[in-house]
Amino acid sequence: MDWTFIQQYYPMYVTAAGLTARIALYGILLSLLIGMICSFIQYYRVPVLRQIASAYIQLSRNTPLLVQLFFLYFGLPKLGIVISSEGCAVIGLAFLGGSYMSESFRSGLEAVEPSQTDSARSLGFGKAQAMQYIILPQAMAVSFPSIAANVIFLIKETSVVSVIALADLMYVAKDLIGLYYKTDEALLMLVIAYLVLLLPISILASILERRLRHAGFGD
To answer: What is the pTM of this model?
Structure first.
């Protein structure tokens, strides 16, 4: 193991980790928004929009992120739509993640007994109030483990964005291996970088999940 090489090039991984984290953050936030909108559309069975949301979910879940990125980065310019590499990566993650988040939210909403809504309405809550104060908190607690798993999944999926010329963690690792043939050192730094990004999120999600269950939510 060449520790001098590691010391010399680890700053490149720090910079790449920042880019990876930024892409993941924006992609995850957008996927949460898309997922919540689609889940409400399906939960309330909105005509036409429900069919559109279902078609989007099937398309997103059954096509690889790599293909989606190629379409965004190489296909859209043929139609006169040019998006930056980082923009394509964020949109691709949001498009993929939105379908998974939608299913997580929907399962949480459907896990809440209909009697909860009836009870809330009998107490004078409006439809929106019942959703905000009664249904949604319970649904979020139920779907939290699935949402946390999706967040980790999407962060790991950022390893694909190097194919559209983004200097993320995977791009840096492959670049150093190709230039210097330091495979062990490059991969060691890659593994450490992903652990630094993912391990705190995994630990925090586990703690929050235990607290929700201890409080009586999500049972």
So the answer is: 0.89
Which residues lie below 8 Å from residue 10, measured CB to CB, with a gap of 6+?
A: 189
Which candidate, 126, 63, 72, places its Cα nearest to that of 100? Answer: 63
Residue 201 exposed, middle or buried by CB count within 10 Å (0-12, 13-18, 19+)? middle
Place of tokens 């949460």: 32
Question: SS3 of 50, please?
Answer: helix
Average pLDDT, 10 consecutive residues per value, the chain (219 residues): 86 94 95 94 91 94 93 92 93 95 90 80 79 84 91 93 88 90 91 94 90 61
Question: First-to-last CA distance in the chain?
Answer: 49
CATH number listed for the domain at residues 3-214: 1.10.3720.10
| In the chain, domain spans | 3-214
Q: How many other β-carbons are positioned within 10 Å of the β-carbon of residue 40?
A: 18
Closest CA to 147 of 51, 57, 29: 29
